[in-house]
Amino acid sequence: MLRTSQIKYLTNTSIQEIHGDSNRLQQIEIGAVLFMPKTLDYVSARDNQFSYGPYLWDMLHISLKTFDVSHMFTFHREDEQPQKCSYDIICKKEPDTESEMKYGMEYSDQTFQARPLPMPHQLTLLNYSSCHFDYSVLAFNLTKNILRNVDLSRNLLTSWIGPIYNVKSLKHLDLSSNFCSNVSHYFFSEDFGSLEELHLQNNILGLVLPYDYKGKVLQNLHNLKTINLSQNKIQRLSKDFFKSQLKIERIDLSENTFESIDFDIGHLKSLKYLNLKNNRISYLSASAILQLNSIGILNKIFTIDLSQNNSLCTCETINFVQWLVTTTVRLTGKKNYTCQLSDLTLVSLENIDKLYDTLSKDCMSKIPLIVALVASVSSVLIIICSGLIYRYRWKLRYAYYMIKIRSHKKMVLVENDDDKSYMYGAFVSYADEDSTFAHKQLLTKLEKENGIILCLHKRNFLPGNDIATNITSAIHNSRRTIIIMSRNFLKSYWCMFEYNMARMESIYERGHENVLFLIFIDKIASKELPLHILELVQSQSYIEYPNDEYGDTVFWDQITQVLTS
Ligand SMILES: *[C@@H]1O[C@H](CO)[C@@H](O)[C@H](O)[C@H]1NC(C)=O
Ligand SMILES: *[C@@H]1O[C@H](CO)[C@@H](O)[C@H](O)[C@H]1NC(C)=O
Ligand SMILES: *[C@@H]1O[C@H](CO)[C@@H](O)[C@H](O)[C@H]1NC(C)=O
Ligand SMILES: *[C@@H]1O[C@H](CO)[C@@H](O)[C@H](O)[C@H]1NC(C)=O
Ligand SMILES: *[C@@H]1O[C@H](CO)[C@@H](O)[C@H](O)[C@H]1NC(C)=O
């Protein structure tokens, strides 16, 4: 313990600098600090064992500018000739109020209220590096100060929760090598507005920073010029991570595990240096290239380090290779880059221009070939398919309606056995203009006089079913289909539908048995008939309606015979 009696004679001197390194100082007697000379501005007290205590409040009254208390608690071999300290409370290890206070302050419950932390009001540099300081940094409120430079590197500050208040003059903060894996969104409070340099390298911030989607961690650091995030196991950063760093000049992201540049940097107009050395970036996306180019245009000295990244030089990444060749952005050690080709060989980018030329020729010659091949194969396929569909259009429609009918439970279907019995003797297909013939002559002669039950769409179709299903089902449930052929028939869409469906029925359901029976009621010259009807007329039976008394008798006899045979 440093006592008043030991230093009180210094008070009237004009000493400016005191070195007290490598002692075992733990505490300072209350009031002793006030005897320090007024001229003092530099104290180096490295390699001691200072702990928290009430003497810290005395610090407020001295005019110290630099305080170096780094390397505290380093391991020493046991003193072979220990100092006899008969009067020293620390040596006696008696319980006393001071040490209670010490532990009380240091390990008190983690209330959120910011604790006051005394700072000599003239202090500009505090070096608290390498102190084995194992602590989760909670909320602190520093006393009035003009601190510009704080070094807390190489401690064990594993969690930065904060917020830390009243650091309005702070320009340089070193928190590197602290094994920190947790930094809160509010650790850097709005009082960090002056901060220009932030050293965070060699921590484990890759565990938290990727999840800072809104760029909150650095949101108050408007004046930041340099940030070092090297060696942090960071795989990616969100788009908005650097959204507030409009004045930033240097970003060091080397020795992480980045695979791409996803974070926005296009807005960082002052950026001079971006270090991505030793990551896993195999190529840059189009948007990353665009952003880098836009900085490069504003800033002639903008430099990016992409070395040790296993770039890929394949047809897929040709835009990236082209960028490497043509960009005005400076690339450090471009000649030292290696690039992996599609056959997995590694080439140096020393002759990158040549490499790009060969690569682009290779890729160019393949692209049109592949496109042409794909296009021709697919057009052939399309032609074949549409040809097949056209060729079998009626069969397909017939099959579709048959499936529809079969799935319809209400329709009673009679199986197509040899001794088949159909619901109707004949389905009559006619154009609406010819309905008189169908409804009068046909109905009277066939149904009333000869008992052949007819299916007429006006009379027999089930309401509610769609017309195509009704037709298909009627044809399927009738023994024959009578076509009342006329010019009107040829013009009617639904008549042609019925005709074709009946054709399909005879081919696919009745084993080519002739289902169709044509009655010509108009005189139609054969050249007026469509080809597929003409074909049928020539190969199968048809009859012309004579419309005279004698002819009529023969006509109806013939029809009745055909329909009952
Ligand atoms: C320092 O100087 C002042 C005034 O000159 C005097 O009163 C005081 O006793 C001195 N202190 C010491 C420790 O000599
Ligand atoms: C703090 O002290 C360490 C070692 O004692 C030294 O390496 C470091 O440069 C110092 N930091 C500052 C900011 O002076
Ligand atoms: C980080 O600290 C915050 C605030 O104390 C806590 O809620 C969170 O669980 C911590 N996260 C991790 C990964 O330790
Ligand atoms: C960042 O930290 C790394 C690792 O300590 C160091 O090599 C590098 O020079 C630093 N970069 C800057 C810009 O300070
Ligand atoms: C290239 O790599 C060699 C050894 O790997 C190194 O000595 C040299 O400094 C590097 N050059 C550049 C420009 O980075």
From TrEMBL:
InterPro entries: Leu-rich_rpt, Leu-rich_rpt_typical-subtyp, LRR_dom_sf, TIR_dom, Toll_tir_struct_dom_sf. It holds the Pfam family TIR. Its main location: membrane. Residues 422-563 form the TIR domain. It is a single-pass type I membrane protein. It comes from the Eukaryota. One of its GO terms (cellular component) is plasma membrane. The chain crosses the membrane at residues 367-390. GO terms for molecular function: signaling receptor activity. It is found in: Membrane. SUPFAM superfamilies: L domain-like, Toll/Interleukin receptor TIR domain. Keywords: Glycoprotein, Immunity, Innate immunity, Leucine-rich repeat, Membrane, Receptor, Repeat, Signal, Transmembrane, Transmembrane helix. One of its GO terms (biological process) is signal transduction. Belongs to the Toll-like receptor family. This is TIR domain-containing protein. It comes from Mytilus galloprovincialis (Mediterranean mussel). The lineage of its organism: Eukaryota, Metazoa, Spiralia, Lophotrochozoa, Mollusca.
